[in-house]
Design brief:
CATH architecture: 6 Propeller
Largest sheet: 4 strands, antiparallel
Shape: globular
CATH class: Mainly Beta
Strand order of the largest sheet: 1-28-27-26
Number of strands: 28
CATH topology: Neuraminidase
Structural class: mainly beta
CATH superfamily: TolB, C-terminal domain
Helix content: under 10%
Strand content: over 45%
Order of helices and strands: EEEEEEEEEEEEEEEEEEEEEEEEEEEE
Radius of gyration: 20 Å
Oligomer: single chain
Length: about 425
């Protein structure tokens, strides 16, 4: 079900207090005060889709970006829905038989900027695409480099310019959860014309955020000298030149896929780990001060109480809530043919469900929940967004709500707490 067989999977467990973990089937730790599902829809093509990121838009609707299988490779796919979950439009862009895909999206004053990869001269390259409010393509820009490349994170700045991060010089084609090329930070005009491009000291940039001093912070993953992967933060000045970088995890494998600014100052990473006592992959969040000093770490997982030896708890998105806390989302399930358990009300272990965890400002768990229903197929969260009414939007890979026989982009609206 997961990830085209490429990349990795992951999970979470609370520092100092593991929630619902067990060597055999245990009692799920799902909170009674978690938000309810208001509506759940899925859209796409008759082919297999995977959503990577999404946001609520200024008109109250939602937009998700990702890819759709074209048989041999993939096309970039964007789906827009209304505030009530009705499909507004979808756009597919790409060349047959090669990899084109979207990974991130940001809203501009006159449309949406999609970051990902488009193919040029047979190899996918870092690319931006601008859509208007009706889904019409206004422009596409490809930023060619050596090998394969892609942009994984994007922000539109207050003056309309765009900053994006990703990688180039990668030997392997296709969507990769962790690329091993050369990281890049790119700034463009509002029309996508490159203003400057800086290499990074890491193999890829995953997410980028603009800072009040005009500089930028990049969250990502990199190999260490001890041959394990660590989460990394890279801090740059306004021209993209590196000021410092810091890794997190030490001898523990820690992979970071999303990052948010901490309302109290600093940054919070979200990803997954096999370290810190995890039996398999557990989700992890790491809070970092403005100078890169680690403030706290939280690991958590096993919300359905299955065997910790087999369950992957994969958290892909994090958002800072207005009260200073954080909400983290991903998928929970197993990928082992020799194991299956169907105890409880949250579906069998090999059915992927959405896993959402609410943390307070110090990383303590406020509530956690599983969404997707019992025996309703796969509904694995790939990202989470805040909504204007105080709720949340889960962007998921869903075959329960699919328009074809495989996955579609899922949009699951959660109520305010």
């Amino acid at each position: 079900m997961r990830h085209f067989g490429l990349g990795v999977v992951w999970g979470l467990a609370l520092a100092g207090c593991e929630l619902g973990r067990a060597d055999a089937v245990g009692t799920p730790s799902v909170s009674d005060d978690a938000p309810a599902v208001e509506w759940h829809v899925g859209y796409g093509t008759p082919r297999d889709e995977h959503v990577h990121e999404g946001i609520q838009t200024a008109d109250g609707g939602y937009i998700g970006v990702g890819q759709t299988d074209d048989g041999a490779a993939s096309d970039l796919l964007v789906v827009k829905v209304s505030a009530d979950g009705d499909e507004a439009w979808q756009v597919s862009v790409g060349q047959s038989g090669v990899f084109d895909f979207g990974i991130a999206v940001a809203e501009a004053s006159d449309g949406y900027v999609v970051a990902g990869a488009l193919t040029e001269e047979g190899k996918h390259q870092p690319a931006l695409m601008k859509l208007d409010a009706d889904g019409e393509v206004l422009w596409q820009q490809v930023y060619s480099g050596a090998g394969y490349g892609a942009l994984r994170g994007v922000e539109v700045l207050s003056d309309g310019t765009i900053v994006a991060t990703g990688y180039t010089d990668e030997a392997e084609a296709g969507f990769l959860f962790i690329a091993e090329g050369t990281g890049l930070l790119l700034k463009t005009s509002a029309d996508g014309e490159a203003l400057w491009q800086q290499p990074l000291s890491v193999s890829q940039g995953a997410k980028v955020r603009a800072l009040a001093d005009g500089g930028f912070v990049i969250g990502t993953t990199a190999w260490t000298e001890s041959d394990v992967e660590n989460a990394v933060i890279v801090r740059t000045d306004a021209s993209g030149a590196e000021l410092w970088s810091q890794s997190y995890g030490g001898e523990n494998t820690v992979q970071a896929f999303d990052m948010t600014l901490d309302p109290a100052g600093g940054f919070v990473l979200a990803g997954h780990t096999t370290g810190y006592g995890a039996e398999n992959w557990d989700c992890i969040t790491i809070a970092v001060a403005e100078d890169g000093t680690e403030r706290w770490m939280t690991r958590f997982g096993q919300p359905r109480g299955f065997s910790g030896r087999y369950i992957h708890d994969e958290c892909y998105g994090i958002q800072a809530d207005p009260d200073g806390g954080f909400v983290v989302a991903g998928g929970t399930g197993d990928e082992y043919g020799a194991y299956s358990s169907c105890a409880g009300e949250y579906g069998c272990s090999d059915e992927w469900k959405s896993y959402v965890v609410r943390l307070d400002a110090d990383g303590e768990v406020v509530w956690q929940a599983v969404y997707g229903g019992n025996d309703r197929g796969h509904n694995a969260a790939e990202y989470i967004g805040l909504t204007a009414d105080g709720g949340y939007m889960i962007f998921s890979d869903t075959d329960e709500m699919a328009t074809g026989d495989s996955n579609s982009f899922g949009f699951m609206k959660l109520s305010a707490e």
